[in-house]
Amino acid sequence: MNGLHELPLVIFTVLAQSAVGCWLIFTFVLCRENNQASRHYLNKVIFILLALLGIGFISSVLHLGTPLRAFNSLNRVGSSMLSNEIASGAVFFALAGFYWLLAVLGKMPQGLAKLWLILTALVGLVFMYMMNNLYHINTVPTWNTAFTSWHFYLTIVIGGSALAYALLNANSEKTYQLRCTPMLYCLGVFLSAIVVIYQGFGLSHIHSAIQQASALVPDYAVMHVVRLCLLAIAGLLLLKVKNAFASGFAVVIVLLAEMIGRTVFYGLHMTAGTAIAG
């Protein structure tokens, strides 16, 4: 299967995007939640976001080969999208980690907590922007399209809302409502299906002197059908089965589905040379 050679990047991008998406929703909820028992629960489960993000960063280091290369990649912050991605991701991870630690220890004033949450969310958005821009490469016509941005940003919505809903709904002390989060998930899946269809048609117009873009991933349609079916199953589990195990299993299915989609994305890599996008 084309794209599996980039499995570390598949894991990194999907987990990072899902964690940032979840943080954005948590920021909105925590800034409005005044029940102390509920806030304490929410602050504790932020560790799950950090764990996923940590797994993602470890995977990215495996892609680079050694931790030293990751540090060397920071040498061109400001001029290199890779450096910008790593730097903004590290800052987001640090801010989120310190917030969690101080909040769990009871050392985070509520007024400062809101500012910290919002600042971290903004850094997370910068991180996502840098990650997206990294793949808009002029010499890779199959990536240098609006579809790349749509896929990346929709993973933030789909993975983030699924993870957030599972964690928020498990809060026995909650005073908030969860009407918008399921709607956000469904909207993300719906838009993703549209993007997949349009991209499938668009691939037939991208080719080089020796290869058609659609030939890079001959099972494009099958893999995305499987992905969308998994997302639908996960949505039913999240919304219809009200227990922690089903919610956790649904999140795993969502992450797996998004990784299938990301594997297709990496399989579409094609250096331009004499490539033509028409």
UniProtKB/TrEMBL annotation:
The chain crosses the membrane at residues 6-29, 41-66, 86-105, 112-130, 150-170, 182-201, 221-239, 246-268. One of its GO terms (molecular function) is dimethyl sulfoxide reductase activity. GO terms for cellular component: dimethyl sulfoxide reductase complex; plasma membrane. InterPro entries: DmsC. GO terms for biological process: anaerobic electron transport chain. Keywords: Membrane, Transmembrane, Transmembrane helix. It holds the Pfam family DmsC. This is Anaerobic dimethyl sulfoxide reductase subunit C (Anchor subunit).
